Amino acid sequence: GAGVSQSPSNKVTEKGKDVELRCDPISGHTALYWYRQSLGQGLEFLIYFQGNSAPDKSGLPSDRFSAERTGGSVSTLTIQRTQQEDSAVYLCASSLRVLGSGEQFFGPGTRLTVL
Amino acid sequence: DQQVKQNSPSLSVQEGRISILNCDYTNSMFDYFLWYKKYPAEGPTFLISISSIKDKNEDGRFTVFLNKSAKHLSLHIVPSQPGDSAVYFCASGAQKLVFGQGTRLTINP
Question: Which residues of B touch A43 (CB under 8 A)?
Answer without folding.
Answer: 44, 89, 91, 97, 99
